[in-house]
Design goal:
By secondary structure, the chain is mainly alpha-helical. It has helices at about 20-30, 40-45, 55-65, 75-85, 90-100, 105-110, 120-130, 135-150, 220-235, and strands at about 200-205, 210-215, 235-240, 245-249. The strands form two sheets. Strands 1-2 form a two-stranded antiparallel sheet. Strands 3-4 form a two-stranded antiparallel sheet. It is flat and about 65 Å long. About 30% of the residues are buried.
Length: about 250
């Protein structure tokens, strides 16, 4: 069988960051273009026509982040929650849902929790992803776009590591899913789609050990502080001399 030709662009992942997606959604909202045709939307956004590559890819990103619907460019609930938040934390919850609603993004976030994004490794992974069939150049753009989107959406901590932003107790719906099987319900590893907005996170430890946590994304700061206190009393801390760091068994 002949090898499939790799593409220099993709509609499966954003090639423009979430900030550009927000700009498109904001323009559609401000100019009342939700029921307009795509040529009208393109002109309203400052582009000559709907086939303009910069416009087309920005619109594709807005749809992948679920800020804009299809075929009509109506605003989604995520876009409405971001542009007109009705509760404290709703804006961040919308950003979190937009990021984690893209399966490959959710997988990469989960793999990098507590670590810095390695663009070279992410690029390699995207280039080799069988479902994408994209070129190295395209993979680099998608990886860079992911990193920018994570920064904009608050997924990069002050120390440069990846973390899930606190949403102030706001529920995130529809549920955010992790690594699911083809039927959408689970895979051979037992990762199951959770209908209540929970997500399974894995924290790698030394010696091949790991901690797995099944937790919601709508966690408040007070709950995080309570969790920290609970962890100190529940897990056995084995203090090591090297670097004066503790290691959890």
């Amino acid at each position: 069988m002949a090898e499939l030709t790799k593409k220099d662009s993709t509609n499966e992942l954003p090639m423009f960051d979430i900030g550009e997606a927000i700009k498109i959604a904001t323009t559609i909202h401000d100019k009342g273009l939700e029921l307009a045709s795509l040529p009208e939307v393109a002109k309203g956004c400052g582009y000559a026509n709907a086939t303009s590559t910069p416009f087309y890819r920005r619109l594709a990103a807005a749809r992948l982040f679920k800020f804009v619907g299809t075929p009509k460019p109506g605003l989604t609930k995520i876009a409405t929650d971001y542009l007109k938040p009705s509760a404290e934390g709703a804006k961040q919850a919308a950003l979190t849902q937009a990021i984690m609603g893209i399966k490959i993004y959710a997988d990469i976030v989960n793999q990098h929790l507590g670590r810095k994004i390695n663009l070279e490794l992410v690029t390699n992974g995207l280039e080799k992803e069988p479902g994408l069939q994209i070129s190295r150049a395209c993979a680099k753009v998608c990886a860079s776009t992911l990193e920018k989107s994570l920064k904009i959406a608050g997924f990069i901590s002050a120390d440069g590591t990846v973390a899930i932003p606190v949403t102030g107790g706001v529920k995130i719906t529809p549920p955010i899913t992790g690594d699911l099987g083809a039927d959408g319900n689970g895979d051979e590893k037992g990762k199951v789609k959770n209908e209540t907005g929970y997500y399974t996170y894995t924290l790698p430890l030394a010696g091949g050990r790991k901690i797995t946590v099944n937790a919601p994304l709508d966690v408040t700061q007070a709950e995080i502080e309570r969790l920290n206190k609970w962890t100190k009393f529940t897990l056995f801390l084995d203090w090591k001399e090297e670097g004066s760091q503790s290691e959890i068994n």
